[in-house]
Amino acid sequence: MLTLAAAGALWFRHGKFGIWGVILGGLAGCMTLPAIMCLLALVWMLFVTGYPRLPACRNGCCVGKTGYELKRFGDGFAWKCNCGDYYERRGRDFVFLNEEGTGAVVRTWRPLRGWFPRYGQ
Ligand SMILES: [Zn+2]
Q1: Domain locations along the chain
Q2: Residues surrounding ion ligand 1 at CB below 5 Å
Q3: Is the pLDDT of residue 62 over 90?
Q4: If you measure from the C-alpha of residue 63 to the centroid of ligand 1, how many angstroms do you get, rounded to a whole number?
Q5: How far does residue 58's CA lie from ligand 1's centre (Å)?
Q6: How far apart are the CA of 8 and the centre of ligand 1, in A?
Q7: Residue 18 has what pLDDT?
Q8: Mean pLDDT, the chain, as a whole number?
Q9: What is the 3-state secondary structure (H, E, C) of 16-65?
Q10: The pLDDT value given to residue 13
Q11: d(Cα 53, Cα 94) in Å, to the nearest integer?
């Protein structure tokens, strides 16, 4: 980060921008890293985690952070939707959990294309 800022400052110093060039260059250098991180996070989300991370439930009424609550389920945790069903994420799949804890894939995230229904739809 500091290296980037210094590189930005140096690069601008060679131009005809004077002290403002150094300041702006330093700022630009500082902004580069967060911008790259944001871009990487966006790419990761579009390809792997999906958006919203928790898609609509089986009934199609609960979605995202407001539709689900993290609750104890068996030995671990699962997402409970407002209808009272339990779900979990397995890779790109969104899985409905029945009482025995065996799951059925409800939706699958397809990179750049969205959530696609798989079961009971
Ligand atoms: Zn629901």
Answers
A1: 2-49, 64-117
A2: 57, 59, 61-62, 81, 83
A3: yes
A4: 8
A5: 6
A6: 50
A7: 77
A8: 87
A9: CCHHHHHHHHHHHHHHHHHHHHHHHHHHHHHHHHCCCCCCCCCCCCCCHH
A10: 65
A11: 9
